[in-house]
Here is the input.
Amino acid sequence: MEMRPLRYFVAVAETGHMTRAAEQLGIQQPPLSQAIKALERELGVLLFRRHPRGVALTDAGRLFQVEALRMLQDMEAMKQRMARVANGEVGTLAVGFTSSAAAHRFVPEALRAFRREHPGVELQLRENNAAELTEALAAGRLHCGLLRVPVARPEGLLFETLLREPVLVAMPSDHRFAVTRKNKEKASRPLPLARLCEEGIILVRRPGAPGLYAELLALCHAKGLRPRVVAEVDRMMTNLNLVAAGVGLSVVPASMTGVHAHAIAYARLADGGQLDAPLTLVSRVEEDNLPAQHFAALLRRHASENPGS
Here is the structure.
């Protein structure tokens, strides 16, 4: 059933007069009378009793008035909901992130800001490694992702560097290179890359893929150094757990320094060259999800306002 005959019916029912209802609706009286008769034929009941001074609802008309008002109210509510969807005020946003990206204070701050600005959007947060996040984005299972150095660049995805931060060497707190209160001068010195390569190194990467740790290996080889890799893991937290357990040393973004503070010491890398840890936004080139578009715009805005965060 169309909504226009319902609006016509409600106007006549509320005014009790065809002419006054037609004036209220901005139409002529004859088309209104014809529309009401057509509605009565469609329903198979008489909705109004006609009399010289106007019209009065029948018992069927009073019942139908309740239903018509409900239908019109439901339609108006649906229009308002769809307008909110069209403006990106409601919907679902699936965001993926690596543990090292989530450790940067920028990420939780941005998520809180998005919740404040878009309280009607349901946030679905998922953590994974960079390779699996990229695959999930390419397959359409995520709307956007936050990671460090991309390990793959599938067609149809956009990679944007939001921020950059230095990398630090992570080592067991009782390591001979670790910061100690007894020798602050020695401890404050950056660790040379050659010294790092003398130790067992833990990598977070998919073998054969690019990324932060591939860049570390390339830097070592460029300097004629042969790093000794003792473990390769999928996740940054696994990496730091192994460092804390004394399995080896690793290189991590500076924002990870709060992890296992009782068991891990951190030091600068003396000759790391251009080695750093970016924070990368990955999104789909032709993204039609408005909450995702709003979130990406918020990330870019916050990054431009806080380049050193």
Summary: The chain has a mean pLDDT of 88. DSSP finds twelve helices and eleven strands in the chain. The CA atoms of residues 100 and 236 lie 6 Å apart.
